[in-house]
TrEMBL record:
UniProt xrefs under PROSITE patterns: PA14
Cross-referenced InterPro entries: GLEYA_adhesin_domain (IPR018871), PA14/GLEYA (IPR037524)
Gene source species: Saccharomycopsis crataegensis
TM ranges: none
Signal sequence residues: 1-21
Domain PA14: 44-223
Alphabetical keyword list: Signal
Protein name (record): PA14 domain-containing protein
Length: 241
């Protein structure tokens, strides 16, 4: 990368970080008392997340809109991997040039890519679940238990009703760690979507969930599932007043 272009990118990054620090980020605190879940009448078709990969559009790292849907509009699909139960990864000591590594068993140019993870999170307890994203490098965005993750009880493709105001967590490199407590009811499956990107160099994704009982998990076998979109479902809405 040319030095002048690299310097320009650093300036843009700094600008977004200053704005973020001054305005705060309401998506990284508080609790969500309303949730939308599903009760399926058929068995799950898969265990774990579905991971979709896209190339990265230079300069979009700190745009919520890009992470919400822009990567699918402007980025080229690089394929997918099913059955992802261990979602976290880290590579350090990387240069800013194109470098290839393995993510979920798939060879990817890790120095510039976008990732979307989708699935249904099973609530085995009733209460507030604390979803967390820490040390994201470069940026990550998380939706849960709403139509903005994807259309509830339907396809895990992008939701037609996605709303940036529904973002549960948004975090980025050098920014604050993000968390959100969401009330989920035992026995239901809740749509979740995690979007991540790396724009250059090192990368890190660290996602986990603390259960109402206090147990912490960052591996999702037997917790996140896939379902046939033609399954008969009952939509469950829950709200604490």
């Amino acid at each position: 990368m040319r030095y002048d272009l690299y310097l320009c990118i650093l300036v843009v990054q700094f600008f977004f970080q200053v704005i973020h620090a001054q305005s705060g980020d309401s998506s990284n605190n508080g609790a969500i008392h309303e949730s939308s879940g599903c009760a399926f009448t058929s068995s799950a078709t898969g265990n774990g997340f579905l991971a979709r990969f896209y190339n990265y559009t230079l300069g979009a790292a700190y745009s919520k809109t890009y992470l919400e849907s822009g990567y699918a509009t402007y980025g080229k699909s690089l394929g997918s991997v099913s059955g992802v139960t261990s979602v976290n990864f880290q590579y350090s000591g990387l240069t800013n040039g194109p470098l290839t590594r393995t993510i979920y068993g798939k060879s990817i140019t890790v120095t510039n890519f976008t990732l979307m993870l989708t699935g249904y999170f099973y609530a085995s307890e009733s209460g507030y679940y604390k979803f967390s994203l820490t040390n994201s490098d470069d940026a990550a965005l998380f939706y849960a238990a709403s139509a903005s993750a994807f259309d509830c009880c339907g396809s895990t493709s992008l939701s037609s009703s996605a709303n940036l105001d529904d973002v549960s967590i948004y975090t980025y490199y050098t920014g604050p760690n993000g968390y959100r407590q969401i009330y989920l009811e035992k026995g239901y499956f809740y749509p979740v979507r995690l979007a991540y990107l790396n724009m250059q160099g090192n990368l890190n994704l660290n996602f986990g969930v603390t259960y109402p009982s206090g147990a912490y998990v960052n591996s999702f076998s037997g917790i996140v599932y896939q379902f046939d979109t033609s399954s008969t479902v009952l939509t469950h809405q829950h709200q604490l007043l």
